[in-house]
Automatic annotation (TrEMBL):
Record gene name: Myo5b_1
Segments forming domain Dilute: 1-126
InterPro entries noted in UniProt: Dilute_dom (IPR002710), Vascular_dev_regulator (IPR052072)
SMART domains reported in the protein's UniProt record: DIL
The organism of origin for this protein: Crypturellus undulatus
Name this polypeptide is given: MYO5B protein
Source organism superkingdom: Eukaryota
MF (Gene Ontology): GTPase binding
Length: 171
């Protein structure tokens, strides 16, 4: 069950983040607030179902950081440093794309300046990120089956002759 929910939450993360990276109309402060609220509801549901050890919440980390990126101030050099230290699960390309797509919803917000984006790129230049923008939503985590040893010893097993396993020898 834990592995199923980890995979499910990964798909939710990938599809949502990919939509965020491809649609200018959703890159805003209010979308960041809505995403963060919805993610907190998912995390609370995981805790309620005692699935916090499943790793499902960790698969949402890039989406959480993208939501926080949409909510942070984006003006000063200190803001750039805060963004760089916060967004460790996002690639440089994803951070820059979200900043480029950021669209103010009301008159109190401002567009992200080109100088600020260049400042972010300068801070993140030493990162060795993969050159991918979108997340592969078809990725499948390996299924792990727990090993439960049997209390029956191999010496006590009787193999019926009808199985035609005469080639097996007891050691």
């Amino acid at each position: 069950i834990q592995q199923v929910f980890k995979q499910l939450f990964y798909v939710v993360n990938a599809v949502t983040l990919n939509n965020l990276l491809l649609r200018k109309d959703v890159c805003s402060w209010s979308t960041g607030m809505q995403l963060r609220f919805n993610i907190s509801q998912l995390e609370e549901w995981l805790r309620g179902k005692n699935l916090q050890q499943s790793g499902a919440a960790q698969t949402l980390e890039p989406l959480i950081q993208a939501a926080q990126l949409l909510q942070l101030k984006k003006k000063t050099s200190e803001d750039a440093e805060a963004i760089c230290s916060l967004c460790t699960s996002l690639t440089t390309q994803q951070i820059v794309k979200i900043l480029n797509l950021y669209t103010p919803v009301n008159e109190f917000e401002e567009r992200v300046t080109v100088a600020f984006i260049r400042n972010i790129q300068a801070h993140l230049q030493e990162r060795n990120d993969p050159p991918q923008l979108l997340i592969d939503f078809k990725y499948m985590f390996p299924v792990l089956f727990p090993f439960n040893p049997s209390s029956i010893t191999m010496d006590s097993i009787h193999l019926p002759a009808s199985l035609n396993l005469e080639f097996l020898n007891r050691v």
